[in-house]
């Protein structure tokens, strides 16, 4: 049985973001969660789906591979092969606790962390601050598959950005929101392709701060946060 075309047109529309992988994962999860692609049904062909979403087939394959690993879809070979929604879907992740509404967390995070990146780039950093930021960047870039270690080092980099903005209150607020974000991130898989994207985005953020470019620093942080938000909405919003 194929995907219901009525809802597919709305969900499988072109991705409008530079976080194409994360957005593609989110769109596919949304289609599965809403029943547009029901358990056991076959997804459109790679060529068709990539064209509908406006992404490369490489990006689509990466997204499908991530969902195979997470247990949402399965790939079959042969004449009647393709990508099928799993007959038995994974149990839904725990919902955010009261007071940790997803959109509330994501909005506050964007305000705080994008503002921190902009403020840090607007300052003339001391040599010690520049070394601190560079060391935190290298530290998180050195992690591959250890989920807990990656979350820890990722948080440390984001805190370092807040620290070099030279506002103790801002650093405290970023630490608080990172705690809430990490609780949400712990409920979803850590995807290898997302780590690659995050590493590149981290470098862009830090480069803009070190270059003293507040506009570029905010834009780079906005793009980075958008990718994480897309994955959280995809996995947590049923």
Question: What tags apply to this protein structure?
Answer:
single chain, 238 residues, mainly alpha, Arc Repressor Mutant, subunit A, Four Helix Bundle (Hemerythrin (Met), subunit A), two-stranded antiparallel sheet, 2 strands, elongated
* Share of helical residues: 55-70%
Domain unit count: 2
Q: State the shape.
A: elongated
Computed over alpha carbons, the radius of gyration is: 19 Å
Provide the CATH superfamily of the largest domain: GntR ligand-binding domain-like
How many DSSP-defined strands? Answer: 2
CATH architecture of the largest domain: Up-down Bundle
Domain HTH gntR-type: 18-88
Keywords: DNA-binding, Transcription, Transcription regulation
GO molecular function, one term: DNA binding
InterPro entries: GntR_C, TF_FadR/GntR_C, Tscrpt_reg_HTH_GntR, WH-like_DNA-bd_sf, WH_DNA-bd_sf
